Amino acid sequence: MEVYLDNNATTMVDPKVFEEMKPFFIEKYGNPNSLHRFGAGTHPKMLEALNYLYEGINAADEDDIVITANATESINSVIKGIWVDKILNGDKKHIITSEVEHPAVTAACKFLESQGVAVTYLPVNEQGVLEASAVKEYIKEDTALVSIMWANNETGKIFPIKEIGQICKAAGVPFHTDATQAIGKVKVDVQDTNVDYLTFSAHKFHGPKGVGGTYIRKGYTLTPLLHGGEQMGGLRAGTVDVASMVGMGLAMKLATSPIALAHEEGHIKRLRDKLENAILEIPETIVIGGKENRTPNTTLISIRGVEGESMLWDLNQNGVGASTGSACASEDLEANPVMNAFGSDSELAHTGVRLSLSRFNTEEQIDYAINVIKNAVERLRGLSSSYAYAPESHKSAL
User: Against a cut of 0.85, is the pTM above it?
Assistant: First the structure.
């Protein structure tokens, strides 16, 4: 049996989405910016897709949603756009983010630091969540942007976006949230949360790879990251990938419907908890960050005495796909930065295994995965020359 439990890295394209995309490869292939019927023939479905995106995050008609290649491009567009608009061409010189952001946010902020921008990286608490009060404490008169993720890609922990949005609004500071790991798992509402910029990627909610979006609240602007033609109202140059845009729109509609979100909070959460609780029956295993305030599909578990990379090899040999954390950093064998941010010891920092489910996982698959994981732990601990089960010596692992 094959069981895919790495849905925070990417998801299977929903078959309904794939069928919606197919005509735009061969039948309706015109450039949407062309004036002839071949180009114009793409417009109805593009408009429909855009409407689905607006509805999915509750954007207002006056707001902008820009189609991009992925969340990484969207994130860079926001952070570097703010850099140009408010730092290079203004009097701001400070950005606030967290220590556990996706590498796209962290790397963009590191680049700005190399250009003389001051960046504050706020730590998370013992539960792996950034406290809104910390944002308020560090906002200064020269703060140009606050960028805090909606949900963490490794732990699934949900951050207090509404409270942070209120703080930023009161201080007159633009607020960006990376909602890549939240859409399709929890309700995302830009109006309710005072979010000014929001970024996402279709392949995280059963859409195609290679397409994402940037939400921009009315009254806010960004210098484009890509210059060229007048596509997307001049906010993002380049011919739009119509098939991917159409697919992302339908994927958004399917993932954010009340029925879909209830399924996540009910059935998917139940399967995640079943998997997690079975693993926690193994001595010296813990859930990183605890069980509260998470997306319904995600768990990051530390198994003392078992290297994360070794565990993944065993799981892969038995048809189970999982991750040690962010897929965007999967080739980096350094200690997991999220584990480090939690203050874990040097041994535990290498033991995290992330399991992330989707609506396409079944009860039978979870039962199989539980058996595989338990067998792998027994085998790998048996091979270890340093591991010995001694509960008294590891009471305060985290």
Answer: yes
Q: In which region does residue 172 sit, left (phi positive, over 0), alpha (psi from -120 to 50) or beta (all else)?
A: left
> 3-9+259-394 belongs to which CATH class?
alpha beta
Written as six digits, the tokens of 52 are 């689905």
The whole-angstrom separation of Cα 122 and Cα 148 is: 10
For residues 204 and 249, what is the distance between their CA atoms, to the nearest angstrom?
Answer: 13
- Which tokens go with 341? 């941010």
Could you report the per-residue pLDDT of 96-155, keeping only the tens digit for each? 999 999 999 999 999 999 999 999 999 999 888 899 999 999 999 999 999 999 999 999
Q: Which CATH number applies to 15-256: 3.30.70.790, 3.40.50.150, 3.40.640.10, 3.10.129.10? A: 3.40.640.10
Active-site residue 168, yes or no?
no
Contact 130, 160 (CB under 8 A): yes
**DSSP assignment of 84-114, as one string?**
IIIIITSS--EEEEETT--HHHHHHHHHHHH
DSSP state of 157: B
Q: Which residues, 6+ apart, have CB-to-CB distance to 16 below 8 Å?
A: 250, 254
Single out the catalytic residue among 46, 171, 226, 328: 328
